[in-house]
Amino acid sequence: MTTSKRKAEVVLFDLGNVVVELGAGPLPAHWLSAGQSFDLKQWFHSDVALAFERGELSALELAEYLQRDLNLDVSPELVVAEFRKWPLRIYPQLPALLIKLRQCYQLAVLSNTNELHYPRLFNEFDLDKYFDKELVFASHLIRLAKPDPEAFIYVLDQLQAEPEQVLFLDDMKENVVTARSLGMKAQQLKGGEEVAAYLNSLISNQD
């Protein structure tokens, strides 16, 4: 098909583990009982996580759920405070590359995020140095979360872009699969070094 050869014009980023470095988990390990663990893979696919990321649960409601589910001997308010800290920083390899990439592509974000982490992206991490805020599509604001195809369709509509014009970068296979099923170019990447190497290749191909 000729559409597969059309040059991407938009690079659509996931944030966690792609642009933003995350800590080991949202809660301190010493809060958990002996033999208990916080399974991140299970968490990301859980109904409660997706409900929080779609803005259907408040931060306090999430904290109360975690307190009950994990039998935590701490207040919901403390759970909220710790959960907020989970994103650590923008990977240090990326700022200069993102600025350079903006000269070649329109940059946008589709992120499963929430009311606790979203403000930090701008207030602490200065995300708007690299992405126009109106092109940062946060799941809790658009009320749609990956891998739901409707989240991608919403973003395409807002960008006024055809799927083949978009290159999507994400660390989770199911999100990449959904993007490809809609006609987007998509690449699974994780961590600052891997993402930086890929962005360097995109920039080099423009020279």
From TrEMBL:
Print the keywords alphabetically: Hydrolase
Give the transmembrane ranges.
Answer: none
Per its UniProt record, what Pfam families does this chain match?
Answer: Hydrolase (PF00702)
SUPFAM superfamilies linked to this entry: HAD-like
What InterPro entries does the record point to?
HAD-like_sf, HAD-SF_hydro_IA, HAD_sf, PGP-like_dom2
Return the CDD domains for the record: HAD_sEH-N_like
Q: Which GO terms describe its molecular function?
A: hydrolase activity
Source organism superkingdom = Bacteria
**Carries keyword Hydrolase?**
yes
- Alphabetized PANTHER family for the sequence: ALPHA-D-GLUCOSE 1-PHOSPHATE PHOSPHATASE (PTHR43611), FLAVIN MONONUCLEOTIDE HYDROLASE 1, CHLOROPLATIC (PTHR43611:SF3)
- Name the UniProt record assigns to this protein: HAD family hydrolase
Q: Which organism is it from?
A: Amphritea japonica ATCC BAA-1530
